[in-house]
Design a protein that fits this description.
The chain is of the alpha/beta class. The chain has one domain (about 1-225): Rossmann fold, CATH 3.40.50.300. It contains six helices and eleven strands. The chain has helices spanning about 45-55, 75-85, 100-110, 115-130, 145-155, 175-195, and strands at about 1-15, 20-30, 35-40, 60-65, 70, 85-90, 165-170, 195-200, 210-215, 220, 225. The strands form two sheets. Strands 3, 6, 7, 8, 9, 10 and 11 form a seven-stranded mixed β-sheet that branches. The radius of gyration is 18 Å and the shape is globular.
């Protein structure tokens, strides 16, 4: 099943008297349980692609489909609901709330959605166990390492049981050991939760942990996504 599909997606911005084309007729398909790496130089369009796929920005033209649903046909309220229910976003910086414990970071998301706090807490504890933080549920961000904060970030993105998981440079602020651990965790949750995962990354050494690699340049994906080399 194709969980995320972009068809001839173009995104343009006004740039003085001219127009900047951030995305130029991009086509991409990511299937359920597939882990795709997105690489390319700065300014190539990677962040714009994530923003469009996350329904945070509406493309100038083209189609974005999530679980087969055409996002462009939805109202703003419907897009917000779809993003809440179908899309998990993992930003480069975890942006955790300083006053909340690890488990509370997850529970508050469900509380804001109007769901039962008791049920949310049970699910939050289960997800923190999945990401290896069962012993840190009551710790606040300042008591966690950078890698642990990113694990809370991943668990939080999974709270809504998303079909699509979009990840922006998750290892940018981490050392080598923690970086590899986080990418391996993303591999694990992609397999376990059957998400269609897209990870923007500059760390090419971790590409073998993913299923395929797409390269961007000048707003375009250069050729089809290619299978990643398998780790030794």
């Amino acid at each position: 099943m194709t969980s995320l599909k972009l068809v001839n997606v173009t995104l343009e911005y006004p740039d003085g008297t001219s127009t900047l084309k951030a995305l130029d007729a991009v086509n991409l398909a990511v299937h359920q349980g597939e882990f795709l790496s997105l690489v390319g130089p700065s300014g190539s369009g990677k962040s714009s692609l994530l923003a469009v796929a996350a329904t945070l920005i509406k493309p100038t033209s083209g189609l974005v489909l999530i679980d087969g649903q055409d996002v462009s046909a939805l109202t703003e309220a419907e897009r917000t609901a779809l993003r809440r229910d179908k899309v998990g976003i993992i930003f480069q910086q975890p942006n955790l709330l300083p006053a909340l414990t690890a488990v509370e970071q997850l529970v508050i998301r469900e509380h804001l959605r109007g769901n039962s706090v008791k049920d949310a807490r049970t699910k939050a504890e289960e997800l923190l166990d999945v990401v290896g933080l069962s012993g840190a549920t009551h710790k606040r961000p300042h008591q966690l390492s950078g890698g642990q904060r990113q694990r809370v970030n991943i668990a939080r993105a999974l709270m809504g049981s998303p079909s699509v998981l979009l990840v922006d440079e998750p290892t940018a602020a981490l050392d080598h050991q923690r970086s590899e651990s986080v990418v391996r965790l993303l591999r694990q949750v992609t397999d376990e939760f059957r998400t269609a995962t897209v990870m923007v990354t500059h760390d090419t050494e971790y590409l073998p942990l993913t299923d395929a690699v797409a390269s961007m340049r000048d707003g375009r994906i250069s050729g089809a996504a290619v299978p990643a080399a398998q780790p030794n």
